[in-house]
Recover the amino acids of this structure.
């Protein structure tokens, strides 16, 4: 199986402190003999393409390098709230990502496309797939920010449009599942797939907690 993973959160370089949950999920797909390509935004200091632990990583350009600052760090929504000028980058971000997805779809024969977040990744993937002959199925995962942080009529209609074009939809909690069905698309029945937690290297339980749980 060949999988295209589209995300805005992925390690930019070795030792990066950004959340690694998409990387961890993708790595475990490789462990199950899948060929995984990851598409993420470019940022200053990151390579345009590289192999990371058998993952084929592609980073799309969307503006001049010093101003490719919309993703990573605190996240896209927080950056929009902190500086309204960042809204100027959104059209370039969407177009750059859509074109990058389309080019990868023309170059590789993917079995499935997995978009993390309904907006903007799910939207960009859905548009690119519409322009692709013999397009692979789309799987969308909502992590919360796109579901709770993007309200209003237009974002809701975009989410509904994306959900209609997704073969499968997953969310990371039962509450998100009920929220999506009640406030976005009543006919959507997403699967609940919580993201894993690394209890060996990143999050080590307190020894007293472990001892008390074993007693």
């Amino acid at each position: 199986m060949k999988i295209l993973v589209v995300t805005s959160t992925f390690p930019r370089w070795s030792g990066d402190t950004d959340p690694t949950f998409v990387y961890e999920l993708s790595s475990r797909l490789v462990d199950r003999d899948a060929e995984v390509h990851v598409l993420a935004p470019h940022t200053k200091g990151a390579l345009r393409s590289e192999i990371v632990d058998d993952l084929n990583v592609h980073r799309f350009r969307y503006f001049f390098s010093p101003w490719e600052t919309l993703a990573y760090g605190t996240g896209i929504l927080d950056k929009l709230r902190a500086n309204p000028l960042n809204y100027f980058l959104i059209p370039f971000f969407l177009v750059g990502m859509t074109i990058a997805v389309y080019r990868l779809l023309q170059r590789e024969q993917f079995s499935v496309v997995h978009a993390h977040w309904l907006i903007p990744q799910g939207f960009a993937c859905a548009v690119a797939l519409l322009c692709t002959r013999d397009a692979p199925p789309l799987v969308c995962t909502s992590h919360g920010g796109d579901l709770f942080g993007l309200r209003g009529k237009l974002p809701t209609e975009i989410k509904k449009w994306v959900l209609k074009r997704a073969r499968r939809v997953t969310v990371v909690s039962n509450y998100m599942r009920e929220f999506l069905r009640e406030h976005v698309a009543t006919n959507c029945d997403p699967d609940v797939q919580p993201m894993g937690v690394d209890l060996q290297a990143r999050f080590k339980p307190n020894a007293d907690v472990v001892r008390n749980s074993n007693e």
User: Anything to note?
Assistant: The CA atoms of residues 3 and 120 lie 19 Å apart. DSSP finds eight helices and eight strands in the chain. The mean pLDDT is 92. The beta strands are 2-6, 35-41, 49-52, 55-60, 112-116, 138-142, 168-171, 191-192.
